[in-house]
Amino acid sequence: MAQPSRPVDLNASLAIAVDGLHLNFDGSTPVLVDVTLHIRQGEFVSLVGPSGCGKTTLLNLAAGLVTHTGKGSIHLAGASPLQGNPQVGYMLARDSLLPWKTALENAMFGMQVRGVPRAQAQERARSMLQEVGLAGFENMLPKALSHGMRQRVALARTFALGSPLLLMDEPFGALDAQTKLQLEDLLLRLCQQHQQSVLFVTHDLSEAVAVSDRVVVMTSRPGRILADVTIDLPRPRSIRELQKDAHFHELYAQLWEHLESGWSKHEG
Amino acid sequence: MKAEKLRWGGAHLLFIMVMLGLGEWLTTNGWLDPTFVGQPSGIIKFLWNNIATGKLWVDMGWTMAGTLISFTLGSVAAITVGLLFVGFPKLEKFLDPYLNAMNVMPRIALAPLFILWFGLGLGSKIAVGCSLTFFIVLSSTVAGIRGVSQDHLTLCKTLGASTFTTFFEVTLPGAVPVIFSGLRLGLIYALLGVIGAEIIASEKGLGQLLAYLGATFEVNGVMALLLVLALLGVSVVRAMTWLEKRLLHWQ
Do A65 and B251 touch (CB under 8 A)? Predict the structure, then answer.
């Protein structure tokens, strides 16, 4: 029998705690307004919303790539965000593989930068490549891999870091529909296995419902949180099975309504 | 594939033979004046005599030495300054108008000054060659480093990579293709600068020989040297292409 949901430890400190956060880029135009968002350890939360609503900005604040200067606060496991924080793994929309390194070297890159000894990094990268279905492709250069395979290497590089928190910025946004579904399935498997906390930015509502424990809907700029929907679909999940699940479609429709109400408010 | 290569080679050989035969026929029958355009048999004779006596090799050696030294010095200086510019953008902003003024100046016009400063030996040729190579490699170095993928740099930031690691693991390898295209052009321009300086005034070198033969109406010799220079240019480009394929096999 399927589990009701991934077990989360409510007593552990929050993976991400954003409280009453405001952000102005140039001191006048507000980008984020009164954003409060709590992500528990081991929880998978997706951020959805129209382009330019500040989803990626919020992710970059958590990664320490954007400095917070306004009101409110943001904390990661109780500490202020820090660029290069070893507790955080970051995955970009494009694969960002280094074209002069092989798949194995790319999968090792993050660990090597963070000081993992070469032999250990190599062993872990090999096993991660196997886990993402790329055994036998270790010595191939990115130019010889398809988009989907390259993104699998990027997933291997990110998960190999073993960081307790993953920040993912539309990692499958640039893929074709079929490859995207395969990689969503892979992500579900990896998350089930590695039990990391994830903040996932996406444009794709169906992707958000399929992979998350909660989906947070944001309004257009300035970004505010409009709704926080719990995805009570049992895990482990399969993308194929979810397509036939009535509750999956209900949740999808519910999120659509929230998004649409955000547009009408913005237009009004 | 090999048969196709042979067919193309045969076609080129036939074309060259026909052109040489046509040139010989036109000059022997008085349709063209060999005093002004030379004669294929005369050109071949000149090449044969000068290659056999070693005279041509000595001049070619001086020209090549000048080219390689000016290319190396010019490129090293340009890459160093390029890195400084990327590290200190204000320095680039300050020096930009001066560098632009120097870059648009026809560098060959500096040759008389360089000859005055460095004499008729290698020094003046190297100075002209360097002055041409430097600006080409400088602009490609700056463009190459500035053009490094922002995604790669973001990745390094999120991983907490040091400036040293980011530079050697990501920035430099990412900039190499653009720097290399500058180096390829820089080498051709180094050859151009050295030959130019030799034509103006020099003790040795293909340019000096070319100027002498031109002044003494040895058109066969001039034509033969132009052929040698074309072959030299092609060899230089081929060598760079070979190196590029080996270094940038990942592209």
Answer: no
CB A51 within 8 A of CB A58: no
CA closest to B157 among chain A residues: A84
Distance of CA A56 to the CA centre of its chain: 10
Residue A110 with chain B: CB contacts under 8 Å: 155, 159
Which tens digits make up the pLDDT trace of B119-135? 888 999 999 999 999 99
Write the class of the CATH domain B54-247: mainly alpha
Provide the 8-state DSSP code for A35: E
- A172 C-beta neighbours (distance < 10 Å), count: 27
A33 contact partners, CB below 8 Å, separation of at least 6: A22, A222, A223, A224
Is B149's CB within 8 Å of A110's CB?
no
The alpha carbon of residue B201 is apart from the nearest alpha carbon of chain A, in Å, by: 46
A123 and A227 fall within a common domain: no
Cβ contact A98–B152 (<8 Å): yes
The pLDDT score that the predictor gives to residue A79 is 86
Interstrand relation of A88-91 and A73-76 (parallel, antiparallel or unpaired): unpaired
Which residues on A lie below 8 Å from B246 (Cβ)?
A: none
> Which CATH number is A237's domain given?
3.40.50.300
Q: What pTM value is reported for the model? A: 0.82
Q: What is the residue type of B205? A: G
> What are the pLDDT tens digits along chain B (251 aa)?
788 999 999 999 999 999 999 999 999 998 999 888 889 999 999 999 998 888 899 999 999 999 999 999 999 999 999 999 988 989 999 999 999 898 888 888 888 899 999 988 899 999 999 999 999 999 999 999 999 999 999 999 999 999 999 999 999 999 999 999 999 999 999 999 999 999 998 889 999 999 999 999 999 999 999 999 999 999 988 999 899 888 888 88
Q: Is A176 in the same domain as A204?
A: yes
Q: Are residues A119 and A26 in the same domain?
A: no
Chain B contacts of A142, Cβ < 8 Å?
250
Cβ within 8 Å of residue A58, ≥6 positions away: A18, A32, A35, A37, A47, A201, A223
Q: Among A85, A92, A114, whose Cβ lies nearest the Cβ of B155?
A: A92
User: How far is residue A60's CA from residue A56's CA, in Å, rounded to a whole number?
Assistant: 6
- The partner residue sitting opposite A65, judged by closest CB among B154, B169, B251, is B154
The pLDDT tens digits of the residues spanning B14-31 come to 999 999 999 999 999 989
**Interchain contact, A86 vs B155, CB within 8 Å:** no
